[in-house]
Task: inverse folding
């Protein structure tokens, strides 16, 4: 393997697909964007760390821990990770900080009340790098968890919610985007992740020919309800999992064609945002670089004849 190849992550491909100029500011120039969502990023680090710690502990355990022992360890892990990753000063109030902590703690407890037990007992990789090559395209990405199943391997990516994840309702948009009939960059991040991790899992020592490789987005905090009571507010959290391996199989050629276009654009340093009208419509209000972007400002101050 030629180690001089340029590997690109699904996240960077998705940024380029959303807007090449945004990619240029972020990855080529490393322009620092305002951190308006620090608390959500830190909360994600906390529950990712708690799951990784728990799966690692189960894998290294000399015996077979009971369900209650796994849950007890997970509760200690989220407490430890919350303290390590969060900062009270990032929150507007003590109440907001306590609420977010309760959401993360309850979400981890709910996960290890059901699917998390099986995932922990059958986990073969936690927070590991996967790489894949297809023609001249070289990708890599850090996977949250790989679980051995009866049929093969299940790659899991933990999210707060499943918002923006490709689904049975939106998967036809992949072909529409590929054919230029519409611009659907909003779902491509999840599609690029599926391609990278499914093909990457097939390159690991855990894969054997003929195995099924499933890819699952697991929304740990998919549904969060606040329940006011005499002793204050309690929180209930429900997770939701979405398998997208079948979507990857159904649209594999179109997905890799889009990936190849983005990859080539990144390597060729082509950052002109096209098609501009569609990019502007999709990223409006959701791009940290709008205030300094010549393409955006030029469109905003265009002079009439």
Result:
């Amino acid at each position: 393997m030629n180690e001089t190849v340029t590997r690109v992550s699904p996240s960077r491909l998705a940024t380029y697909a959303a807007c090449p100029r945004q990619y240029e500011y972020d990855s080529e120039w490393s322009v620092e964007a305002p951190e308006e969502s620090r608390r959500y990023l830190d909360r994600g680090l906390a529950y990712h760390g708690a799951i990784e710690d728990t799966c690692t502990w189960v894998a290294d355990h000399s015996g077979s821990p009971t369900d209650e022992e796994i849950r007890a360890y997970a509760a200690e892990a989220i407490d430890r990770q919350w303290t390590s990753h969060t900062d009270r000063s990032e929150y507007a109030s003590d109440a907001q900080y306590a609420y977010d902590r309760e959401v993360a703690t309850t979400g981890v407890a709910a996960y290890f009340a059901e699917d998390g037990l099986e995932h922990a007992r059958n986990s073969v990789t936690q927070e590991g790098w996967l790489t894949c090559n297809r023609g001249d395209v070289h990708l890599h990405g850090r996977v949250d968890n790989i679980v051995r199943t009866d049929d093969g391997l299940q790659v899991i990516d933990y999210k707060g919610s499943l918002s923006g994840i490709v689904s049975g309702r939106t998967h036809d948009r992949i072909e529409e985007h590929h054919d230029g009939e519409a611009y659907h960059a909003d779902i491509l991040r999840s599609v690029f992740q599926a391609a990278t991790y499914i093909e990457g899992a097939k390159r690991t020592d855990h894969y054997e020919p003929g195995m099924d490789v499933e890819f699952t987005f697991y929304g740990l905090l998919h549904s969060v309800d606040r329940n006011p009571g005499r002793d204050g507010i309690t929180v209930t959290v429900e997770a939701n999992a979405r398998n997208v391996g079948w979507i990857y199989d159904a649209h594999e050629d179109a997905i890799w064609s889009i990936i190849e276009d983005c990859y080539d654009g990144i390597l060729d340093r082509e950052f002109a945002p096209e098609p501009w009208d569609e990019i502007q419509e999709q990223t409006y209000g959701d791009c940290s670089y709008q205030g300094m972007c010549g393409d955006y400002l030029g469109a905003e101050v265009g002079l009439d004849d």
